[in-house]
Amino acid sequence: MHNHHSALDLVRERSPERPVALVRPDAVALAGSWFQQNFKGEVLYAVKANPSPWVIETLRDCGITSYDVASIPEIELVRSVHPKARLAFMHPVKSRRAITAAYFDHGVRTFALDTHEELDKILDATGRAKDLNLLVRLHVSAEGAAYTLSGKFGVSVEQAPSLLLATRRATDELMGVSFHVGSQCMRPTAYQAAMAQASRALVRAGVFADVVDVGGGFPSVYPGMVPPDMDQYVDSIHRGFDDMRVHETTELWCEPGRALVAESSSILAKVELKKGDALYLNDGSYGSMFDATHSRWPFPTKLIRDGESSTLLKPFRFYGPTCDSIDHMPGPFWLPEDVREGDYVEIGMLGAYGVAMNTRFNGFGENDHSVVRDAPMASMYGLARRSIPTPRSEEPSVVRFPRAKGRKTRRR
Ligand SMILES: *Cc1c(COP(=O)(O)O)cnc(C)c1O
Q1: Ligand 1 within 6 A of 257 CB?
Q2: CATH code linked to domain 2-22+263-372
């Protein structure tokens, strides 16, 4: 990987033809340390948010030793960087062969499930192992998330008791509950509400949990989506945990994905053509900007030009490089009105579910990487938190964050 101070230095030195992922390991370290210091429990990194080896190296170096994985390739990836990591196979639907390989070849002991059938499958595929940690994924009703994650997985609180009981009987090791309040959760109290539902299911089943895993969902900052302080999220969880009927020794876990990596990466894209208010870029929705198309998220943008530019900002739309008309990002993306072909645009806050979504469709999608030392465009952590531009900001030199429009639900 190359090393530059900022996007502008990189443009001056290399005028890159391909999109460049600008990565900031310091931002991952800051977020990882924040969780380590403020969350009173075990922090598992949800690898799918950004499976880059440098992310796992950085988290390892700030003391994160547990990872939420969903496939054998994710398991192999984490093992290659961090051989001693504790891995939790949190996908509630796994192939028998994957369970067997995870248990026997990779030393995975923690598995999630949301049906009796999956429980039987895990027991069969591990040769009726007695040392399993088994987590029952609950479907909780939570409000305030940009993406719901209950549509596909989770046993309802009504149907949970018999599965909780069967799971309790299936292992001599840890038995627990997990849930996911939805990604980019804008309401801290969603966690406490979900924990109350989990507690009801456990009481009805008459079992005590050894693990309460509150999942992911911790937010980052995007235009029009400036969440409450991260403190309020962990406070809600700590209060919710105090209210649960659990043992003294019950462990509290969380699985942040987005919150650990969102700030850490941006994409430096080149403007290939300007057509009215549309900019045709060399990266798009088949590249790192899936959410800009499918969820219509207006990511923050900065013009990167070696020279003067207009101080008047105007809203633009983007098109990606492929021939598919879906490859359109409505934005609005605020850039100087005189943006033109040959300019570069830095699109920020793409560290989570951004660079990870890249495909090779239509012959595009190959990226370069460069480590940069400047600050992310916005932050949930440290002093930078204060400089987050808000939709109300009137300063002309600050990128304004218009209110996000768009669909509220989708898979993840
Ligand atoms: C995706 C996922 C996460 C991470 O979610 P974020 O919203 O990115 O924090 C955590 N746990 C599970 C089971 C997931 O599928």
Answers
A1: yes
A2: 2.40.37.10
pLDDT in tens, 117-155: 999 999 999 999 999 999 999 999 877 666 666 678 999
Residue 384, pLDDT above cutoff 70: no
- Give the angle 297-148-146 at the CA atoms, nearest 5°: 30
Query: Do the bridges between strand 86-89 and strand 145-147 make them parallel or antiparallel, or are there none, so unpaired?
Result: unpaired
Residue 155 Cα to ligand 1 midpoint, Å, equals 17
* Fold held by 25-261: TIM Barrel (3.20.20)
Q: Is 228 exposed, middle or buried (0-12, 13-18, 19+ CB in 10 A)?
A: middle
Q: Is 283 in the pocket of ligand 1 (CB under 6 A)?
A: no
What phi and psi, each to the nearest 5 degrees, are found at residue 314? -130, 155
Q: Is the CB of 351 under 6 A from ligand 1?
A: no
> Which of ligand 1's atoms lies nearest the C-alpha of 178?
13
Atom of ligand 1 nearest to the CA of 147: 7
Q: Please report the DSSP string for 38-55 in residue order.
A: HSSSEEEEEGGG---HHH
Domain with CATH 2.40.37.10 in the chain: 2-22+263-372
Residues of the chain with CATH 3.20.20.10: 25-261
